[in-house]
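In response to the reviewer comment on reproducibility (Comment 2.3), we provide here a single inverse folding case reported in full, input and output, so that an independent group could reproduce the run without further information from us. The structure tokens appear first.
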């Protein structure tokens, strides 16, 4: 599903990644760890087709088969949860019924008509997970997905990462994803 060979990334004179090799089979899981500023997010953005490497080759599924959740949930704060997901469902050409199912699954159904700006950070993260799952991606790319999640949100995330799909996770909490990982990449 994912093959990256000799991937490097530069921002001007600053080298962020150098010669990264990754091979994740269909259904596999890559666990990426390292301190802040080590290149984890840059690699994930490349693997989500949001950035191009400066050097090296990357083979990935088509963009429409990738779900990406970064440090922000990437939803519109002035819209309600329902309005957000209906908008994204239309963009992805997904049946509206899936919106309700995801809101229910992630414990947001009762708050579906509230503006996202009134949500706690954990609720916003759960809404971001709903957005990522709308189009049932074959590849999930998650950057610090445990950020701001409460205990019920963490349980939902744990169930999600054990579903049968290819997964790439960057985290400061590797123990939570260790069981699922088929490959590990540690940045210094």
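Designed residues, in position order:
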């Amino acid at each position: 599903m994912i093959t990256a060979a000799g991937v490097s990334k530069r921002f001007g004179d600053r080298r962020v990644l150098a010669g990264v090799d990754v091979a994740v089979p269909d259904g596999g899981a890559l666990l990426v760890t390292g301190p802040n500023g080590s290149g984890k997010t840059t690699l994930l953005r490349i693997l989500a087709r949001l950035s191009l490497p400066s050097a090296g080759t990357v083979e990935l599924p088509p963009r429409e088969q990738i779900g990406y959740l970064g440090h922000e949930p990437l939803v519109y704060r002035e819209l309600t949860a329902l309005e957000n997901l209906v908008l994204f469902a239309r963009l992805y050409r997904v049946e509206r019924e899936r919106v309700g199912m995801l809101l229910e699954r992630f414990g947001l159904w009762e708050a579906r008509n509230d503006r996202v700006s009134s949500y706690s950070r954990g609720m916003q993260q759960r809404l971001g997970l709903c957005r990522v799952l709308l189009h049932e991606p074959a590849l999930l790319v998650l950057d610090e997905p445990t950020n701001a999640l409460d205990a019920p949100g963490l349980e939902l995330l744990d169930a999600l990462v054990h579903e049968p799909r290819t997964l790439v996770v960057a985290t400061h909490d590797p123990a939570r994803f260790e069981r699922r990982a088929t490959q590990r990449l540690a940045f210094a």
